[in-house]
Specification:
alpha/beta, 3 domains, 7-stranded mixed sheet, 19 helices
């Protein structure tokens, strides 16, 4: 708009009167061209042009910038997870296909969503947009081919192609420079692991194989499960560097106790949504933190929240280890959780509080050093290490150093599921607490995701400690520490 700015800076009307008509037309033409170039090159500017009622949020800027990189050929694999009613599909399935076709009028686009009917509806909206005056003002060189009648299948005047299909629909024989997958799962789909598996199979055998060399994929969806398409794609990515490597953007509805899209949603409105649906759905669909329905053996809401910055007076401290010795990125983690036994002021009886949690891929010397540091800091009365191949060497070393290690030996048939089920009543009864700390959130989320989460190291460490607690191994006699003053000073600070 520099030409227009210079135009408006003229000091008086006499300067305007001195310009001939051709000069004025040139100034105006240059201003229009400059504006058009910005709208052609920037998706957000394009959106504001063709959708004047649009209410912009901070997340839209990030979303639009990612789509710009797709249009520029700088980004080839993009996953965007965001809540309902936050302009997810309006961007991905209506506005961006038209924008991309304007930038690449000979491109081949495949647009999919969970039903063929909805996909065709989006195709109609994109088609109508290309036929509009607003679009023509931005991309005057791009129109529909004369014979483009179908809403779900049309062509540009430059031989570009658009094809809409529902998940599971046939797209054999079609190629794609851009594949857009918008909400591949419906609520009913998400209730069935078999359907989620079928959708992934459809993706790998269908759309993924239709992608042209150098083509791009955009997956935009609300999360439903750890086994939804986002979850499966990221799982494949973690297992092999040769698989598609995705750039992932997650938009939770609430950030730091404030609405992400504050000029559209209020906190009261979001709290009303949260109160109206199961917590698992809120966490998955609105916060992008899914846990499998089958995996919710330990529900998030069962954890009691310790609000204080200081820990309670503790009767007993338990430290629990799940061990693995390797620095390889593919190796399991070693996890250490520390628990305190105390009595809440409400008189509900003995309870446990998570004091600390650490996890890393330590080699054996590093793990031994970390164990000693944790022991010296917390001075636990009991240290538990599972008696498996990786745990026995640590047990021997710690015992030699004077640390009171007890080996945990699961009975036959006492698998991970059984262990989790055995301690779940402790959580459900409100006997397990956690502070508002990052380490606690990690443990809570991993427990909620079990058995379908990516990791279970914290789960193993947690269940091990709680099983010992439940068996009564924490009980001590009064005269054991009768002459020892209770040292609460250090134990009143989180690590």
């Amino acid at each position: 708009m520099q030409f227009l700015k210079n135009f408006l800076k003229m000091e008086n009307n006499s300067q305007l009167e001195s310009l001939d008509t051709n000069t004025l037309k040139l100034i105006l033409k240059n201003a229009v061209e400059e504006t058009r170039e910005k709208q052609q090159g920037d998706f957000m500017q394009f959106v504001k042009k063709v959708w004047p009622e649009f209410i912009e949020g901070k997340h839209h800027k990030i979303y639009a910038e990612k789509l710009n990189r797709i249009a520029n050929g700088e980004l080839k694999r993009l996953i965007v997870n965001m809540p309902p009613r936050h302009t997810k599909s309006e961007f991905a399935s209506h506005l961006f296909p038209a924008f991309y076709m304007g930038r690449h009028p000979n491109a081949k686009l495949i647009q999919t969503t969970h039903t063929g009917e909805l996909a065709i509806r989006f195709g109609r909206k994109a088609k109508n947009l290309i036929e509009s005056e607003e679009y023509n003002a931005v991309f005057p060189h791009v129109t529909l081919a004369a014979d483009s009648k179908a809403a779900g299948r049309w062509e540009s005047n430059h031989k570009g192609e658009y094809f809409a299909a529902g998940v599971g629909g046939a797209i054999t024989g079609r190629g794609a420079d851009l594949l857009i997958i918008d909400d591949p799962h419906s609520e009913q789909d998400a209730l069935s692991p078999h359907v989620l598996d079928a959708h992934y199979e459809w993706y790998t055998s269908g759309p993924r194989q239709r992608l042209q060399p150098g083509g791009a994929i955009v997956l935009v969806m609300t999360r439903w499960s750890v086994k939804d398409l986002t979850g499966k794609l990221l799982d494949a990515q973690s297992k092999s560097s040769a698989s598609d490597q995705w750039e992932v953007v997650e938009f939770p509805a609430v950030i730091n106790d404030k609405p992400m899209w504050g000029n559209f949603w209020t906190m009261d409105g979001l709290e009303s949504v949260k109160a109206s649906i199961p917590l698992t759905k809120w966490q998955a669909q609105w916060m992008q933190q899914p846990t499998s329905e089958e995996g919710a053996l330990i529900k998030r809401e069962w954890w009691q929240v310790w609000e204080s910055e200081t820990i309670p007076n503790l009767e007993f401290i338990i430290q629990s280890y799940d061990t693995a010795f390797s620095k390889k990125e593919s190796a399991d983690y070693s996890a250490i959780t520390t628990w305190g036994v105390f009595e809440p002021e409400d008189g509900s009886g003995k309870a446990l509080i998570l004091l600390d949690a650490k996890r890393d891929r330590w080699n054996f010397p590093e793990l031994k050093a970390e164990a000693m540091e944790q022991y010296k800091y917390w001075e636990p009365e009991m240290v538990i290490v599972e008696a498996k191949a990786s745990g026995l060497p640590l047990t021997h070393e710690l015992q030699k150093m004077g640390i009171p290690v007890i080996n945990f030996t699961p009975s036959k048939g006492n698998d991970k599921h059984t262990r989790v089920n055995s301690v779940a009543p402790l959580f459900e009864s409100g006997a397990v607490w956690a502070p508002k700390k990052d380490f606690a959130e990690e443990v809570i989320e991993e427990c909620a995701a079990f058995p379908f989460g990516d990791n279970d190291d914290y789960v193993d460490s947690t269940t091990q400690a709680l099983m010992k607690y439940r068996q009564g191994y924490h009980v001590t006699l009064k005269d054991d520490f009768e002459d020892e003053p209770l040292d609460n000073g250090r134990r009143r600070s989180y690590y």
